[in-house]
Please model this.
Amino acid sequence: MRLLPVSEINVDHSKTKEVEEIMKSTFRLITFSREHYADDLLNTYLSSTTSLKELLSIKNAQMEAQDDEEAEEYLVNLKETLLYVTNEIENQVDFTNEVQLFQLFRSTSPDSHKTHPNRYRDKLVQIGAYLCPDPKLVPSLVSELLYNMNSIKNPIIKSIYFHHELIRIHPFADGNGRTTRIADNWILMYNLYPPVFIRDNDDKAMYINTLSKSFALLDKTPLKWNAETLSFFEQEIERLRFNCQFVFDEVKKIGEKRLKTK
Model:
């Protein structure tokens, strides 16, 4: 396997700018609105973001679990992991390294970690028709991926690139999806974006189908950007745009409510 070169990423930046503008508008309300106190808006922002974090845990658990019992177990682990991530963000710590990746793996998938403590997978893995890279290649691929991220300035693109390529590497024996999506959201949340998640079964099917097609095309031409990889990036940007709009709308409501009572 060869990682997709960062230089090949080719997305419509007007879409990322739209997301950025929604969040700028949200923080303008928090900072400059005359309709409410700063604390009112800040609390609303925190509350709406917390609701999204709760949904993130639930949706990720449902995404990975085979049954309700397993989903409940995953949910407990994911909530604890998100608490760890938000504490790190409060301490000005971004996601950047392998130690953090193993911490997320340990936290989201404790049973798998007990079987493979602080180790990557040692067996071949297949996802549908896609054969993941040989286990011997995994450490160097993860190191290369983390290195590549340093050259991506836009946190939205950085988070999606990491998400796409880590799933393609599939470094762990289990819990790859949960670990990857939490790391992805750590990058976003550190940069003051809300978390993203798969919203429903149709979204889940589209997510899996697009990744599968992207991986297949990259197997044939590993160093070339393609339509399916672009589609995955665009879908992730749209998921983020949707949640950014949700946060903005929730923050704006308090001002509109106060205006009506004047």
The chain has a mean pLDDT of 90. The chain has one domain: 6-254. The two ends are 63 Å apart (CA to CA).
